Amino acid sequence: MICFLRRLWNSISFRLTLNYGLLAILTTLILSAFIYTQFIGALRTEYTRQITSTAQRLEVAYEEGGRNALAAAIELTLSDRIDADREIYLLLDEHGRKIAGNLDASLPLNSTRPDVYEADVIHDGMPTRGHLKVLPLADGETLVVGHDSSEIGDITSLIGQATATAILLAVLLVLLGTYIFRRELAHRVSHIRQTTQLIGAGQLSKRISAPTGEDEFTLLNRDVNAMLDRIELLMKSARHISDTIAHNLRTPLTRIIGALRAAQRPGVSMTDVLEANQHAIESIERLNVLLEKLLQIAELEAGIQRRSFRPCELDVIVADVLEMYGTLAEEKGVSLLRAKLDNVTLHGDANLLASALANLIDNAVKFAASRVVVDVTRQNRTALVTITDDGAGLPPAEYEHLGKHFYRSDPSSEGHGLGLTSVKSIVGLHVGTLGFSDARPGLRVTVSLPLDPKSKP
Fold first, then answer.
1. Which residue from 144, 107, 416, 111 is spatially nearest to 291, judged by alpha carbons?
2. How far apart are CA 270 and CA 379, in angstroms?
3. What is the pLDDT, as a whole number, of residue 410?
4. Distance in angstroms (rounded) separating the CA atoms of residues 193 and 201
5. Among 3, 75, 102, 179, which residue's CB has the most CB atoms within a 10 Å radius?
6. Dihedral over Cα of 27, 29, 32, 38: its sign
7. Which of 302, 336, 368 is the last residue of a domain?
8. Where is the HAMP domain (predicted)?
9. Quick one: angle between helices 216-263 and 270-302, nearest 10?
10. CA 268 to chain centre
11. Is 373 in a helix, a strand, or coil?
């Protein structure tokens, strides 16, 4: 039993419905109390008004005709049978003897209270509760005017029964809601748990079904699926990168080992040994450069260097890079042109942005036929850097592969295929995008970066 109660309490569906149930019961109690106080208050106010009005009328009759006229007025009022079973009257002489009325004179009266008060009385021989007003008269008589208030008790009992019924219905509805809600929640959550267990077991292609709609679970399922898509993509990318790294390391290491072993054979001259050592050192240095680039890309993708961000002027960075590559472009017979340089302020790392732009401009100068055009513009809250060359360009089918680890459009070219990967990582670190398009002729590279939020529009 204790285990069942503990398991029930650990259920979020039970706790939620319990909270809502308690809220419903509390609301019912507050509403019932409000209705009771308002209704009973209005009823008591009406009793007081009627009693005061009747007492004033009877006092006038006494002043005009004395005791006999007052007794006659009381008897006439009781005989008209208009609410006679609820009205209370009593006229006592100066000695406390009953002259007229329907109230038992044996019960004590509070003649010192000038207002209407509530007391237990015997009305027409029946004990009840009444609202009374006691008026001492001029010749020593006492007039009591009142109203039977037993209906207040009836109304109180009725409201109590209605409240108890409402609470019972609320409890039943809470239990029913708990059952329905728990089944629905268990169904939705169990599907998510089954899918995540399959994914945890290695089936990364599994996804949570997300039906049409905008409820919380559907939105959660979509977010989880988007996260799983990203994780699967990263896993595939990591697997591809690790395979490529292994290939890029295995081949030169095999060559280094083979060359060094060959240099250890008997009869090898010292010149050949030194040459083999030099080739090994150069190969290891190239591997070291490769590993440093991979480490830098990993740090960029992890966002570690975002901590050094500060406002920087993109147009100044582009101008400095263009000046640095001006001589190289002239040597290759390429014109390096500035089409437009708008004043643009970004929140980022100036050195990283300069490195990325230098890489793009270096590629453009390398593959251009005669000219490279660079411009910096701003559109709304975005800065655009466009680098266009007039070279042979690339087939549009290759655009989606540019920026991937170790991808080279020309496998015979030098390098490791990490230049554009580094550029893409730097742009991504600055929450930007890197795009490629056909310049006809040549290739157009567009870097889109968000402006500094503090910069002027």
1. 416
2. 65
3. 66
4. 12
5. 102
6. negative
7. 302
8. 183-236
9. 170
10. 74
11. strand
Domain count, the chain: 3
> Angle at which helices 350-367 and 314-331 pack, to 10 degrees?
30
Same structural domain for residues 25 and 142?
A: yes
**CATH code of residue 16:** 3.30.450
User: In 13-125, at which residue ranges do the beta strands (DSSP E only) sit?
Assistant: 87-92, 98-101, 117-123
Does residue 15 form part of some domain? yes
For the chain, the residue count is: 457
For range 184-194, the mean pLDDT: 79
Last residue of a domain, one of 283, 302, 321: 302
Q: In terms of domains, do 256 and 137 share one?
A: no
Q: What is the pLDDT of residues 128-186, one digit of tens each?
A: 888 888 888 888 888 888 888 887 878 888 888 888 888 888 788 877 877 787 777 77
In angstroms, the CA 131 to CA 119 distance is: 7
Burial of 151 (0-12, 13-18, 19+ CB in 10 A): middle
Q: What is the pLDDT of residue 388?
A: 92
CB-CB contact of 353 with 376 (8 Å): no
Please answer whether residues 227 and 234 qualify as being in contact, where contact means their C-beta atoms are separated by less than 8 angstroms.
no
Q: How confident is the model at residue 84 (pLDDT cuts 50, 70, 90)?
A: low
Q: CA-CA distance, 39 to 33, in Å (whole number)?
A: 10
Q: Report d(CA 382, CA 385) in Å as an integer.
A: 10
Q: Which residue has the tokens 């308690």?
A: 22
Q: What is the pLDDT of residues 208-264, one digit of tens each?
A: 777 777 777 778 888 888 888 888 777 776 776 676 667 667 777 888 888 888 888
pLDDT at 416 > cutoff 70: no
The secondary structure element, H or E, covering residue 7 is: helix 2-10
Both 356 and 409 in one domain: the answer is: yes
Q: If you search the block for the tokens 């083979």, which residue do you land on? A: 258
User: What pTM did the predictor assign?
Assistant: 0.51
Give me the pLDDT at residue 265, please. Answer: 83
Q: At 444, is the pLDDT very low, low, confident or very high (cuts 50, 70, 90)?
A: very high
Higher pLDDT, 289 or 47: 47
Contact partners, residue 259, CB within 8 Å, separation at least 6? 276, 279, 280
- Average of per-residue pLDDT across 67-94: 82
C-alpha 416 chain-centroid distance: 44
**Preceding peptide of 441 cis, ω within 30°:** yes
**Same domain, yes or no, for 350 and 425?**
yes
Look at the block and give the residue holding tokens 């054979």: 265
Bridge pairing between strands 335-341 and 371-379: parallel
Quick one: 136 and 248 in the same domain?
no
